[in-house]
Amino acid sequence: MNDALENATSPEAESAKGSLYEKHKTIHVRTVKGWWTTWRWIFVWATQVLFYGLPWVQWGERQAVLFHLVERKFYLFGLVLWPQDAFYLTLLLIISAYGLFLFTAVAGRLFCGYACPQTVYSEIFIWIEKWLEGERPARIKLDKRPMNAKKLRIKTVKHALWLLLSLWTGFTLVGYFTPMHELIGSIASFSFGGWEIFWIFFYGGFTYLMAGFLREQVCKFMCPYARFQSAMFDPDTLIITYDPERGEPRGAFKKDEDRAKQGDCVDCSICVQVCPTGIDIRKGLQYECIGCGACIDGCDEVMDKLNKPRGLVRYTSENALAGKYGRTDLLSHIIRPRILIYTLLLALIIVGAGWSLATRVPLRTDVIRDRFSLARVVKGGKIENVYTLKVMNVSEQARTFIISVSGQEGLILADNTRVETKAAENREVLVSVQVPAGALPKGSHKIFFDVVAEDDPKVAVHEKTTFLMP
User: Fold this and answer.
1) Residue spans of alpha helices (H) in 75-116
2) Which residue in 107, 109, 335, 114 sits closest to 228, CA to CA?
3) Residues 322-345 pLDDT 10s
4) How many angstroms separate the CA atoms of 386 and 373, rounded?
5) Gap between the Cα atoms of 375 and 352, Å rounded
6) Average pLDDT, whole number, for the chain?
7) CB-based contacts of 126: which residues, under 8 Å, 6+ apart?
8) Where are the CATH 2.60.40.10 domain residues in the chain?
9) Tens digits of per-residue pLDDT, 220-264?
């Protein structure tokens, strides 16, 4: 018993236990220049100008893009969407899904490498890190150095800038749901609401954590897309890959050595040093690869210095790499049945969504029966049913609507035949529908409310409900 207990706590047992887990190693990304890196930064700038700038754009008297949860209205420039328009959110999600399938089937993880928020903010945080701490060797040396006044100052400034950017990111996100002018006013008066404070710090905190500390671990262990991307790949999908036929056997370059028997790869590990997830692309396609193209730019720089042709690491397909067709035939193999089906479905959905929005009537009406008095006898012996009409003017102009009722003989709208609404306003109107006694048999009868804009007869809705005869 004592021997077993001793063995369980021995250094060997502890070592075996520790070997089950890989110790995290900080990845210090090397700076690289090239075509793919340029495009990656173009997307960084484009996405962030869009994200940080849109809440400040005005559209008339209001914010151009605002998902106003309190008013339950979504403003997209000249478009006003209500909770009843959740159908368009479904269409947006379907379009995003099919777009992801299409882009992935064509050229791999383009979204991950260029537009994913994790990639974008990691790039920005790494740029701040490089600006303060220097290039890769300097950053490695600084991390190994014991803490002193200089290191403390550099690290403090870096984390302060990271925190400021993260909090501003959280503030901007909240600005899409609470009008930006209200948030700015809250700064001056320190009168933030509880939810605004929560989401600013929640989103800002996660930006700081994921872009500053977790980085590649999010892509490796937290992102589900990395796990099911293989289901969207096929041998004709364009992926970033290493050409072993050309590169092997690899080895360090020596001036006096005959390179005829050696491959073009000089084993410089530049492709690993520039990789934001720290993988070795020479080991083949890996789920950790986010398709950013940094290894292509890094390898091309080395090939240029060695007077070797570029493309040892390149965008190509498995079939092309295996020699089943040449580089000139890549385009013809990209356009294949799977891609055509995805493209056709995506185009049909986009056209359908566009047509639905273009022909959308800027008026919504919900009819709610008074449940406390289903039917009653009023003056003159008439039978009356009471309804509440929720008239939603979803246009950007004030309108007057005319209400009428039809569907059965003898129907009379007793009151409230006109309703005035402001731009993007929701009005509740109580209306009474009456019929002479004996005009209809007992039971439920189908009737219709017609709500028509006074200035434009095309802006109209025809809502069905029932009239009860006791």
Assistant:
1) 86-107, 110-114
2) 109
3) 887 777 777 778 888 888 988 999
4) 8
5) 42
6) 87
7) 29, 276
8) 363-469
9) 888 888 777 777 888 888 899 999 999 988 888 666 666 667 889
Closest CA to 240 of 197, 288, 202: 288
Task: For residue 213, give the DSSP letter.
Answer: I
The beta-carbon contacts of 20-26 under 8 Å, at least 24 apart in sequence, are: 24/217, 25/278, 26/143
State the residue for tokens 């007057």: 400
Provide the token pair at 49. 């100008």
Region 363-469: CATH code: 2.60.40.10
- Packing angle of the helix pair 117-133, 136-144 (nearest 10 deg): 80
pLDDT of residue 302: 94
- CA 360 to chain CA centroid, Å, is 25
State the pTM of this model.
0.82
Q: Which residues contact 55 (CB under 8 A, 6 or more apart)?
A: 63, 65, 66, 172, 175, 176, 180
The Cα-based distances of 190 to 71, 193, 195, 196, 199 in angstroms read 23, 9, 14, 12, 16
The 3-state DSSP class for residue 224 equals: coil
β partners of residue 406: 448
Q: How many residues does the chain have?
A: 470
